[in-house]
Write a structure and sequence with these properties.
By secondary structure, this protein is an alpha+beta fold. It has helices at residues 2-14, 26-39, 43-51, 57-64, 72-79, 82-94, 96-106, 110-121, 132-142, 147-164, 186-192, 208-221, 255-260, 293-299, 305-324; strands at 18-19, 54-55, 130-131, 172-173, 231-235, 253-254, 264-265, 274-281, 286-291. α6 crosses α15, α8 crosses α12 and α14 crosses α15 (305-324). The longest helix has 20 residues, at 305-324.
């Protein structure tokens, strides 16, 4: 009976966030020292912030099993749904003037901007329930695998909240600390978020105009090529494709080389361009695609070919739904 009670207690404790005396951790005190020395951040304010931080095993569990680890046929089922497509058309209708202005300003197709917001937060409906300070602190100090990255993001987050006059404990987001309608991480907010409606403040949490403009600016700053294709389906025939499936996401092979080895695009495109041959797993086979620079730009938002493909295909279906129905009527 005693063993069973202990087991139940351990299960109960692991299901909820756990408090930790952060100020007793050398890494936390080192971080406070760095913030004070580098940014003249008040030490006592930092100590008060970290005294209330709550670490969570749920955050570690979530980041350890991302959806991007799924095969393509399971991953796309999460995002390419009738509801998300209809809601995307509705979002387009509701914000069509802002979306058009963002397209004209940054050169990014409307459907791509809409799809990003649809994949990230279902058009602002699901912005996350984790306290950002808890997420970033947990991953900075309790997740060695990516501690340097999340330590930098924690630094940016504290500077961001200081600049915006926001209580660091007030904001909520994803388990990885992404925030607002477009789910920007702290460094992206500070580098790419814009006041797109010129009201004197940047608000990606509740203002769709700023969220849309910020997404457009993010893509433009990462090298989006207006009017250029994103990705093209490939025929591989009997070619042994393995030598051409390389690491990374950036286009690294001249199309001419692939064509000479029996890998052909299903659309007309210059053989002088650089492409990336990608393979996506279906239930019974694979499909092959040739990714170009714009596809790589999408992966700067999330470093996953699955993510970028979901955005690309969702964008196409949202546009088709919007154009095939009365563009003056919102999707339901």
């Amino acid at each position: 009976m005693r063993i069973r009670l202990i087991t139940l207690l351990l299960i109960f404790m692991s299901a909820f966030p756990v408090f930790a005396n952060m100020l007793e951790r050398p890494a936390v005190n080192d971080f406070i020292h760095t913030m004070a020395a580098k940014h003249d951040y008040d030490r006592q304010a930092l100590r008060q912030i970290f005294a209330k931080v709550m670490l969570s095993e749920r955050i570690i569990a979530a980041i350890s099993k991302p959806a991007e680890g799924l095969p393509w046929y399971k991953y796309k089922a999460i995002f390419l749904t009738p509801d998300r497509i209809r809601q995307g058309a509705g979002f387009w209708h509701s914000h069509r003037a802002v979306l058009q202005r963002a397209h004209e300003t940054y050169g990014v197709p409307i459907e791509i901007m809409v799809a990003i917001i649809g994949v990230e937060t279902r058009y602002g409906k699901n912005k996350g329930t984790y306290k950002v300070i808890d997420s970033l602190s947990t991953l900075a100090f309790n997740y060695p695998k990516r501690s340097p990255f999340f330590t930098r993001e924690l630094e940016h987050y504290l500077l961001l909240t200081q600049e915006q006059g926001i209580d660091p404990h007030a904001l909520k987001g994803s388990y990885a600390g992404a925030m607002g309608i477009p789910q920007f991480i702290s460094s992206s907010y500070r580098a790419y978020a814009v006041d797109f409606d010129d009201d004197g403040k940047i608000n990606i949490w509740d203002n769709p105009a700023d969220a849309i403009g910020s997404v457009g600016n993010y893509f433009a700053r990462h090298g989006w090529q207006p009017g250029e294709p994103v990705i093209i389906r490939a025929d591989v025939g009997d070619t042994n494709v393995q030598p051409f499936i390389t690491r990374g996401l950036e286009p690294d092979s001249r199309l001419a080389r692939l064509v000479n080895n029996g890998i052909k695009p299903q659309a007309v495109i210059s053989e002088a361009v650089s492409v990336k041959l990608l393979r996506f797993e279906n239930k019974d086979d694979f499909e092959y695609w040739l990714a170009l620079k714009n596809f790589y730009v999408i992966t700067r938002y999330n470093h996953s070919a699955l993510y970028a493909m979901a955005v690309y295909q969702l964008a196409g279906q949202i546009k088709q739904h919007y154009l095939n129905h009365d563009a003056n009527q919102p999707g339901q």
